[in-house]
Amino acid sequence: MKKYHKSIDKKVKARKKGIIFLIMILVSVVSFIIIFKTDIFKIKKIEVYGNTTISKEEIVAESGIILGNHILKESIKDIESNLYNNPYVKTADVKRKLPDRMVIQIVEREEEAAIPFMNEFLIIDEDGMVLRSSTSNGNLKIIKGLEFTNFIEGAILTVKDKSQLSKALEIVRGINKNQILIKELDVTNKKDIIIKFTDNLSCKIGEGNNLDYRLKVLKKILEDLNQKKIIRGVIDISHEGYPSYRPVE
User: Would you give the end-to-end CA distance of the chain in angstroms?
Assistant: First the structure.
């Protein structure tokens, strides 16, 4: 009797397994049809965030994403790699938003300074990345005194003296932090770096040591000169001790 019951149980279990297997097959087939044979997962919209300099149209074109393509066939890695070909793209983060949206979030590099080179200017960001070349400095601060023979757009500028560029960029970042407007930064002599605010007003900052403190002092001096409507002269904060000022002869 027991053997008879065991035989029935086995048949029931086998039948259940068969039904479950068929259901799984059916679900898989239906899922496959929905995912790959309908328009539900075809890309219908590309959203772009974080851009101010680069247009949305330019980003979409450079991403390589094609509207109407299946969303799962798009390679996130390839899309991000495509976007990094644009020098202005600092970071790119691409995500799928199922069922039919691609979202691109970028952080752009900002133009910070212009470096003279063969009758043109190289426009760089605060990391020294060459963003583009131009016939105009675009009212950006000009960095003078760097020696180099060539450049690549989308790459950090390679100069003869890396410490010279590093100091120049450190000063640029400090100037931005302290919100000081300058016209030109001359690092030709690393021991006698000069900041020009106008053609008639400049500042000697020496080697630029203890930079944050010196720039804070400089900002106060500039505010004082501005209140006194003094627009000419040379400020000297290159030495230890009190800063000095002398009018231009």
Answer: 122
CB atoms < 10 A from the CB of 133, how many?
15
Structural contact between residues 203 and 194, judged by C-beta atoms closer than 8 angstroms: yes
pTM assigned to the model: 0.80
Name beta bridge partners: 172.
none
pLDDT in tens, 58-67: 999 999 999 9
In angstroms, rounded to a whole number, what is the distance separating the alpha carbons of residues 4 and 7?
Answer: 5
Nearest Cα to Cα of residue 203 among 214, 212, 194: 194
| Strands, sheet with 184-186, edge to edge from the N-terminal-most edge strand | 130-134, 120-124, 113-117, 141-144, 184-186, 193-196, 201-206, 233-236, 244-246
Longest CA–CA span in the chain (Å) reads 122
β-sheet bridge partners, residue 104: 48, 94
- Measure the CA–CA gap between 178 and 197, rounded to whole angstroms: 14
- Per DSSP bridges, beta strands 89-97 and 45-49 are unpaired
Q: Which residues pair with 129 in a beta bridge?
A: 156
Per-residue pLDDT reduced to its tens digit, 71-102: 988 999 999 999 999 999 999 999 999 899 99
Phi-psi category of 238—alpha, beta or left, where left has phi over 0 and alpha has psi -120 to 50? alpha
Asked if 44 and 101 count as a contact pair (C-beta separation under 8 A), the reply is yes
Distance separating alpha carbons of residues 10 and 3, to the nearest angstrom: 11
Which residue carries 């644009």 as its tokens? 86
